[in-house]
UniProtKB/TrEMBL annotation, chain A:
PROSITE patterns, per database record: ABC_TM1 (PS50928)
Pfam families, sorted: BPD_transp_1
Compartments (UniProt record): Cell membrane
Name under which the protein is recorded: Multiple sugar transport system permease protein
Gene3D superfamilies on file: MetI-like
Source species taxonomy: Bacteria, Bacillati, Bacillota, Bacilli, Bacillales
InterPro entries found in the cross-reference section: ABC_transporter_permease, MetI-like, MetI-like_sf
Membrane topology annotation: Multi-pass membrane protein
Source taxon at top rank: Bacteria
GO terms classed as biological process: transmembrane transport
Annotated source species: Gracilibacillus halotolerans
UniProt keywords, alphabetically: Cell membrane, Membrane, Sugar transport, Transmembrane, Transmembrane helix, Transport
GO CC terms: plasma membrane
Keyword Metal-binding: no
Automatic annotation (TrEMBL), chain B:
InterPro entries linked to this entry: MetI-like, MetI-like_sf
Assigned protein family: Belongs to the binding-protein-dependent transport system permease family.
Keyword field: Cell membrane, Membrane, Sugar transport, Transmembrane, Transmembrane helix, Transport
GO CC annotations on file: plasma membrane
Matching Pfam families: BPD_transp_1 (PF00528)
One GO process term, biological-process aspect: transmembrane transport
PANTHER family tied to this protein: ABC TRANSPORTER PERMEASE PROTEIN MG189-RELATED-RELATED, ABC TRANSPORTER PERMEASE PROTEIN YESQ-RELATED
Domain ABC transmembrane type-1: residue ranges: 73-265
Protein name: Multiple sugar transport system permease protein
UniProt superkingdom: Bacteria
Membrane topology: Multi-pass membrane protein
Length: 314, 280
């Protein structure tokens, strides 16, 4: 009697598990439906389609016409494309390290027990929060204009300024300064990383009579390197896609003389004011490719300078 | 020894405060200029003034005939609010499936989701535009909101998966004992215990949607549909460089919602950045 009951129970649980697994799978897919539609309809489908479009001539109204590699060949002979690539690369190469160094230095300065730390952190973070807005781009346009605040301050010191925004040698510089100004978010991440470094290491180093520079390069930098790596990758990807500031400051032109013609701004002009959408798709894929290669390079070099406490397991 | 550490401490404070002031000075200057009579704005780099006025705000609010900034605010708030609600619902649904349920092809879909986090939006830009064009959605809020209803902000899914995994599984099991189904575990256990990550998602969705100038300029093209960033740009173009006072006034107003959100949820924002690497 008891045995049959037990057998029944075993049967029940055995029977239950496949049906509940099936139930769970159905439920899971129900929960995933919005994401699945989005993934196929708005990400994967469009990705494949834009890859195809990059080999065509397409103006939105008539059907795309296959042109082979024409778009890519044109690109490398297009003066404005070359200008855009140069502007963007210059920006990435200058702005990313500048911003990260500023973030790291201020983070180290703030990584002490002191009064008012919360207010300081907020103050330095605020530009990151506001910096991406049209309002701040407008402010920047004014600050670095002929009659702007910067020139007024320079005049106070007897220096004759100029219209920085209107000068092809300086316009990009003002946008680099704007990007550097927004170091706060990276700083907050560095601060969190610094807090993770065990105090004992510093105490031991102090006992051993290590110099400040030694402590920085032998303890702080190696232990912070995963955070530096993370910030570097994120900033790199972000910096290739700058749009708003360049658009507002140059009034959508990328001028003077293409000096603020950021890659995404030129892509926007090609795709959505001239409706050369095949060309714009090709441009987009070159951008994705370059960002991918750069990120990969950083990942590959990381084993030489990024130090993981647990030996690199993720 | 003691006096020298004290001195170095004081110097650090002085330096931090001074440097912070220099950094924020342009913003403070813009705020103060927005309250100054037009003629006084460029007469001095000081943020102080003898006369204050609301004139710039009155003049700026009425952008063009029949259109005020009120309309832009309404449009921006509508889009941002839908985006926040949509992200909360659809991202948490996907995250629940990934974090708690077993199903075939889970690993494949999870990898796909991770891949889309890093993918620059430009890779899908043109075909997405074509799709929305075919659907007749250009110049409406649909291209800006429907993608959120389809959980395309994969970063938030990832964030929630991480958080959900930290909730003890025993809670699910005891809920099952109490007769809860898969859906009830989601609504009665997971969501109520995930308030911090839901707040982080809401804040950053709001900020990013509010400031998403690129999508807005792409999809909205008549004044009645304009959002605050587009309205500001229109205002800058139409006023030219002639009335910086009102341009500054409207710029300041456009920053109020984000700044307010920041000061209310400061703790969540700073902690969110520090623990997840999300950036404001």
């Amino acid at each position: 009697m008891q045995q049959t009951a037990n057998a029944n129970e075993v049967k029940l649980t055995k029977k239950k598990s496949p049906s509940s697994a099936r139930k769970q799978a159905i439920a899971a897919y129900a929960f995933l439906i919005p994401w699945l539609i989005g993934f196929f309809g708005l990400v994967l489908g469009p990705m494949i389609s834009s890859l195809y479009l990059s080999f065509t001539k397409f103006d939105l109204l008539s059907a795309p016409k296959w042109v082979g590699l024409d778009n890519f060949i044109t690109m490398f002979q297009d003066d404005r494309w070359i200008a855009a690539a140069k502007v963007t690369l210059t920006f990435v190469v200058v702005a990313v390290p500048t911003q990260l160094i500023a973030a790291l230095l201020v983070a180290i300065l703030l990584n002490k027990k002191m009064a008012g730390i919360g207010i300081y952190r907020t103050t330095y973070y605020l530009p990151s929060l506001l910096g991406g807005s049209v309002a701040i781009a407008i402010l920047w346009k004014n600050l670095f204009g002929m009659d702007g605040l910067i020139n007024q301050v320079l005049a106070f010191f007897g220096i004759q300024g100029q219209g920085w925004i209107a000068h092809p040698d300086y316009a990009l510089g003002t946008i680099i300064i704007l990007a550097t100004w927004q170091f706060g978010a990276s700083m907050v991440i560095f601060l969190a990383g610094l807090k993770q470094i065990p105090k004992e290491l510093y105490e031991a180093a102090a006992v051993d009579g290590a110099k400040k520079s030694q402590i920085f390069f032998k303890i702080t930098m190696p232990l912070l390197s995963p955070v530096i790596f993370f910030n570097l990758v994120m900033e790199l990807i972000k910096s290739f896609q700058v749009f708003t500031s360049a658009f507002i400051i140059s009034e959508g032109t990328g001028g003077p003389i293409n000096s603020t013609l950021f890659y995404t701004l030129y892509l926007y002009q090609k795709g959505f004011t001239q409706f050369e959408m095949g060309y714009a798709s090709a441009m987009a894929w070159v951008l994705v490719f370059v960002i991918g290669v750069m990120t990969l390079l950083v990942f590959m070099t990381s084993k030489f300078w990024v130090h993981y406490e647990d030996g690199g397991k993720l | 020894m003691d006096t020298s550490t004290k001195l170095s401490r004081t110097l650090t404070h002085v330096f931090i405060i001074l440097f912070g002031l220099i950094m924020l000075y342009p913003v403070l200057w813009m705020v103060s200029s927005s309250f100054k009579p037009e003629s006084l704005i460029f007469s001095t780099p000081s943020i102080f003034s003898d006369t204050w006025t609301l004139e710039n705000y009155k003049n700026g609010w009425q952008v063009v005939r029949d259109v005020t900034f009120g309309l832009f605010f309404k449009n921006s708030f509508l889009i941002s609010a839908i985006a926040v609600v949509a992200n909360l619902i659809t991202c948490s649904m996907a995250a629940y499936a990934f974090a708690r349920l077993r199903f075939p092809l889970k690993k494949l879909w999870f990898a796909c989701m991770l891949m889309t986090i890093m993918l620059p939006a430009h890779a899908t830009l043109i075909p997405q535009y074509t799709i929305f064009h075919e659907l007749g959605w250009i110049n409406s809020i649909l291209p800006l909101t429907v993608p959120k209803l389809l959980a395309t902000d994969a970063f938030f899914i990832f964030l929630m998966v991480q958080f959900f995994r930290g909730i003890p599984k025993e809670l699910d099991e005891s809920a099952i004992m109490d007769g809860c189904g898969i859906f009830q575990i989601y609504t009665k256990i997971i969501l109520p215990l995930s308030v911090p990550v839901l707040i982080t998602t809401s804040i950053f969705t709001f900020i990013w949607t509010w400031d998403d100038f690129f999508s807005q300029i792409l999809y909205l093209n008549t004044v009645d549909q304009f959002t605050v960033p587009l309205g500001l740009r229109l205002f800058l173009d139409s006023q030219g460089q002639s009335s910086w006072g009102s341009v500054f006034a409207m710029s300041v107003i456009s920053l109020v919602p984000i700044t307010t959100v920041f000061f209310i949820f400061q703790r969540y924002i700073v902690e969110g950045i520090a623990t997840t690497g999300i950036k404001g």
